[in-house]
């Protein structure tokens, strides 16, 4: 039971360093490594990730719009309407 109390104290110390002292803490457990960061840092990193995802999506849309094999959505809808009318639907 003593070990759990020691771990709680260590975790509390890490939380204090991160939240109050604005540190970023790297922990290594065996061959695994993790970082403990503030929620502010996490939000910032997620914002960056979202912006990069948006840039990737915009690039994909640009490439798709340049692809002459693609059928515009409006043309596809018209084809579907014509096909349904021809089938009597």
Describe this entry's structure for a reader:
The protein is mainly alpha-helical. It is built from three helices and two strands. The protein has a two-stranded antiparallel ribbon with strand order 1-2. A hairpin with a 2-residue loop joins strand 1 and strand 2.
| Main β-sheet, spatial strand arrangement | 1-2
Write down how many β-strands occur, each being a DSSP E stretch of 2 or more residues. 2
Fraction of helical residues: 55-70%
- Principal-axis shape equals elongated
Please work out how many helical segments DSSP would assign: 3
Proportion of residues in β-strands: 5-15%
How many individual domains?
2
Indicate the multimeric state: single chain
Q: Which class of secondary structure composition applies to the elements?
A: mainly alpha
Ends distance: 73 Å
Give average pLDDT, whole number.
88
Q: What's the SSE pattern? A: HEEHH
Q: Taking Cα atoms only, what radius of gyration do you get, to the nearest Å?
A: 27 Å
Main beta sheet: strand number and arrangement?
Answer: 2 strands, antiparallel
In the predicted model, the low-confidence regions spanning at least 5 consecutive residues are: none
